[in-house]
Structure formats: structure tokens, C-alpha cells
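Pinned message: reference record for DUF305 domain-containing protein
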Amino acid sequence: MKSFVAALAALAMALFVSACTTPASDGHTDHPHGAETPVVSGQPADFNDADVTFATMMIPHHEQAVDLSEMVPTRTTNPEVIALAQTISAAQGPEIETMKVLLVQWNAGEAGGHEGHDMSSMQGMVDTATMEKLQTLNGDAFDKLWLQSMIAHHEGAIVMADAELKDGASADAKRLAQQIVTAQQAEITSMKQMLGD
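Predicted structure (C-alpha cells):
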């Protein structure tokens, strides 16, 4: 098991390093999240319980955002919503992998062991009834509920990231938290404009 975890960490590190040494544009230069996904350090630097909590809870939070984004192409033809969903998925997928690597480095579990936590009480998580309703909607009705849900979801992520910035010790985790705050605040502004708020 140790060799598997070490191999996972080494592979993920190699992917992150290679991704960050190749200049590339994601085609969304109008979004502040264009910054590269933080590279995790080669050595497990200082960390504390706040860092572990941040990564452990943010992984399923991000996973739900990816799930929400995957609904979009089949439920709307709104190009702004489609583009935003693609941006969210492209940003948060790699961030999930970064947090998994951090947890491995901290010996806190490959996926953070979030099975013991109540995900429904997490900041901004979309409840099951809303997730099911979204799957029954199309067009403008879908867009409205999806945008409202994603705004609340992003606001929850920002609260969690702010807590990491305040209480965390890991430079890698804090860098990721700042990236989340910057990108998701900008996306909240865009989504509110789409809703006409």
C-alpha cells in the first residue's frame, strides 16, 4: 500500500510539474482563474488540522461542482452557461487532484476520508432535491436554477477557502485557497450578471 501511495503521489507530482512548465492558454483569458493550478511541493511542508479539513471537505465540494457542470451540455443551449460550466470543470478537476496529493503527503488519506462527514451540511452544497430537479429542467428554467445553485455553491467554497487562508499552515493549500477565492468570486459576479441581478 505504501508503494502504491508513493507511486500515486509521484505520478501526480510529475503531471503537475509538467503541466506547469508548459505555457498554455485555456482559452478563457477573460477569467482571473487563468493562473496555473498550484504545484504541490516536493516535500510535505508544515501543515495543520485546518489544512487537512480544508482539503478533505473541498474535494467532495469540488466534485459536486464538476457534477453540476456535466449537466449543462444536455440541458441548455445558452453559450454563456455552457462556457462557464466548461471553465468550472476544467479548473476544479485539477484542483481535486492537487488536494488528493496533499492529503497523501500529509498521510491524511488518499481521498481525505470524508466518508465520516455529513456532506449535506457543508457550506454551499446543493441538496439532493435541487440536484434531482435540475435533471428535469431544460432551457431558461434550467439556466436560472443552475446559476442560483452554483452561486450558492461558490459562496460556500469561498467561506471554506477563507478559513484555510486564516487558519491553515500549508503554503500549498493556502495558495490553492487563494486561487479558489479569486476565480470563484469572479465567476459569481459573472453568474449574477447572467441572472440580471
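Pinned by admin. Summary line: The first helix runs from residue 2 to 21.
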